[in-house]
Structures are given as structure tokens and as C-alpha cells.
Here is the input.
Amino acid sequence: MSFQQGLSGLNATSKNLDIIGNNIANANTYGAKVARAEFADVYAASLAGAGSSTVGIGTNLAAVAQQFTQGSITTTQNALDLAINGNGFFQLQNGNDPVTYSRNGQFKVDKDGYVVNNAGQRLMGYVADGTGQIQPGQAVPLKLPTSGIDPASTTEVDIEFNLDARQSVTKPAVGAPIDFGDADTYNNATSLTLFDPKGQPVAVTYYFQKTATDTWDVYATANGATVLEDAGGDPLPVTTITFEPDGSAPTAPLLPVTLDIPASVNAAGAETMAIAGIELDLTSATQFGSPFGVTDMRQDGFAAGQLNAIAIESNGIVTARYSNGQSKSAGQIEIASFRNPQGLLPMGDNGWARSFASGDPVVGVPGDGNLGVLQAGALEESNVDLTAELVNMIVAQRIYQANAQTIKTQDQVLQTMVNLR
Here is the structure.
């Protein structure tokens, strides 16, 4: 007579209760995955093999299998909180141990500027160069920028506008070709702020003067000073626009014209630097019988700016936003997937380590292949179903009691046999 079956049942059920208890304990742990006890029956076998009437000797715990199903995503108020919606793991490293893989996206910035989790492990990804271009390759710990962004001098100006074909010629018959202080000597004007190499704003005003049918001279001033003038000090046009008879498109200039902005003094009395070689594109201009209107103005310069915020896109790109309205990529998060995630080894602190069973990681950026996408300002909740775990606990308790009852019954039968006379 054997107590083995009941004893193995008690041991297995006790371990099952431990697993259920661990699931319940981690029901509120972000990125945690529910574990399931998987059992196998046990038979004793001789060299000759087991017969058809062999009775098993109990059960054992074959595996503790974690279920990597998607957890619910909840939003937070922290821009560095990240959730993976789909397949994949964050890659974390502390500089000494092998890479740890995690679904917990509770990240912060340490004193050195690195993105870390609560265990101090650094998030891995690709770096960006000085222009914001991502440099794919070997993943390294991501470090957020702390410095501002340097200014950029204006190199291109693009103005899209309509000149009113119904207006009369305004060029004076005698004297200076235009008087910027006299609105009767020109038809329309518009302004655009450009930036010199120091990032100082330069207020440039463009004046449009009709000189003949379908012909317009364009003058410019920088901080109130004439941009181009003759030897006598009279203003010269920076270009002349001529239109088709229907006013639909300029016949000249057909390409952007080069414009040099001289050094000048701004309204505060500070001297601004010269801006050389600006490509002024007026090829989108029209001349219809409707009021003057500017529909688009663009220039590519900007002032110096300080870091204002960090945003993380769904593809893992970390974007730095600056006070001057500019933004630049500061890096990109790399995530990893496994063919057999259940082969990963739990390491604690919401992390797993690769093993022979899991295989090597397949790395990439979020959204590529079968990798999931990132959601910033959100976290993935545990996939533990608390109601189901409580029901499983009741069932496990009953099974434990039943196994104890078999031992008790075996003991009573054995006592009966001992008491035989």
C-alpha cells in the first residue's frame, strides 16, 4: 500500500497554490505576466516496460509556464511611461549583467541623463547624430539631451502670394524709384522675419511695385535699411516679376533669385550680421484680378532654443522639442522579440533573461515586422485575471483536501490490516 500518490498530490497542489498566490500578488504589477502550473502524471517503469494494468504513482509539476498575452493599457501623466502594444520587450542593461528584457515601461531619467527603470537599468536604443539623424546599429543606453539647439541662419525663403492685376502703376515718374515711407510709391508690402548666423531676428519687408502691365518690381528692406541700392543711394529692386497675360504664372524669374541681406541695426539698437546667399523663391506668385494676399511664407532659419520637452513616438523615436519651435530626434528605442518567450528566465524586477529554450532575440524598432508599437504616457497592466485566480485558488484548496483525504484513507486501511489477528 502506497502513500506516494497522495503525497505527490499534496506537493503539486502546494506549488500550484504558490503560483496562484504569486499571480495574485502581482495583479497590480505593471508588465507582469500570469503564470500557470502545468502538471504531468508519474509512472514507475521497469526495464521490461509497463503493463496495461500499471497504476500511476502520482503527479509532479512539469512546468511553470508564463502567459505572454497582452495586458490592458492604462494612461498616466508621465511622458516617459511606455507601453508596448503588441509583441516585443524593452531591452535593459546595467553595464555588468547580460541584457534584461521587460514589458514594464516605468522609466525615469537618472542624474547622468540616461533613461532607466526602477532597478537602475538603462533602456537600450539607437543614438542620433547632431542633425537628428538616427544611426541604426548596435543598441546602446539611451541618453536624453540636456543642451539647447544652436541657431541656424536663413538660407531659403519661399513666398506664395497674389498681386492684384487691377491696380495701377505706382512707380514715380521722377526722383527715387520708390519711397518706403510713402505708400503711394508702391502697391503692397509684406514682412517676414529672417535669422542671421547668431540667430538674431532680422525684420525683412518686401515691397511690390507695379511698373507696367504684368510687370512688378520687388524691393526689400532689412530692419528698415535698404537691402540693395545704387551708387547714388537710391533703392534697387532685388528682382522683377513678369507674368503671363492671364496672370497664372511668372515668366520671370523662373528660378529662385539670390539675395544678400546686409548687416543692419535692429529696433533695440543691436547690430545684426549679414546674411549671404539667401535663395528667394517667388515662382509661386500669381497676378489675378483679386485683392493682394499672401497665402504662404516660409524660411528655414531659427534662433537658438532651450530644451522644453521630450516626446516619444509610436515608432520609438525620441523627439526633443525646443523653445524656438524646433524639434530634433535624440534617439530611437530598440525592442526585441523571441520565438519562444515562454523559454525566458524570470529574473525579478519585472525582467527576464534569454535562455537556450527562448532562442536569440530578434531586434528592431517598434512597428517593424511583427513587433508592436509604443504608446507614450501609458503602461501595460498585468494580465492576471484576479477573479479567475480566486476561483483557481478555491479549486486548488479542494484538491489539496482531497489528496489529504486519500492519505487519511490509506492510513485507516493500513491500520485495519495491522489490527488483523
